[in-house]
Amino acid sequence: MATHIGTLRPPTGANKRSKRIGQGMGSGHGKTATRGSKGQRSRAGMRMRPGFEGGQMPLHRRLPKRGFTNIFRKEYAIINLRDLEDCKPGDQITPDSLMACGLIKRLGAGLKILGDGELKAPLQISAHLFSKSALEKIQKAGGKAEVIK
């Protein structure tokens, strides 16, 4: 028999019917509707905040705090030299040109060029930061690295 969209079925036991509560005595889940009797949790409108442990010190407060968040952190858009290998000799590489061709999505604090990969063509690259290895490889290929302020 051929398999097509009309013959597809989930494996046996994959789909389980939900428990229908409060549907009368015959259902096995009637009267108190699986909530037990009396107490806060049995009442309508009962809501305890997530993580509440009945007054016991909750887990998220028992665990120690670690580290900190640096509010002055700068996020740079990163490009490796291997991403620029397809460029033609003498091409001008700028943050705007990289955004236009889709190599970077958002600029953030600026563009940083890293030295992973080899550069075959001499390129004129303008960026906010360069790694040491990237600078060496650009100059070795006969290109020019210009730092944007």
Write up this protein:
The chain is α/β, with parallel strands linked by helices and 149 residues long. The chain is 13% helix and 13% strand. The protein contains three helices and six strands. The protein has a three-stranded parallel beta sheet with strand order 1-3-5. The N and C termini lie far apart (69 Å). The mean pLDDT is 93.
Brief description of this entry?
By secondary structure, the chain is α/β, with parallel strands linked by helices. It is 13% helix and 13% strand. The protein is built from three helices and six strands; from the N terminus they run αββαβββαβ.
Task: Looking at this protein, list some descriptive labels.
149 residues; 13% strand; alpha/beta; three-stranded parallel beta sheet
Strand order of the largest sheet: 1-3-5
Beta strand count? 6
Q: Which class do the helix and strand fractions yield?
A: alpha/beta
- Please estimate the helix content: 10-25%
- Tell me the β content: 5-15%
> What string, H for helix and E for strand, traces the elements in order?
HEEHEEEHE
What's the alpha carbon Rg, rounded to whole Å? 31 Å
The tally of helices reads 3
Distance between the termini: 69 Å
How confident overall, as mean pLDDT?
93
Largest sheet: 3 strands, parallel
Residue runs with pLDDT of under 50 for 5 or more positions: none
Overall 3D shape: elongated
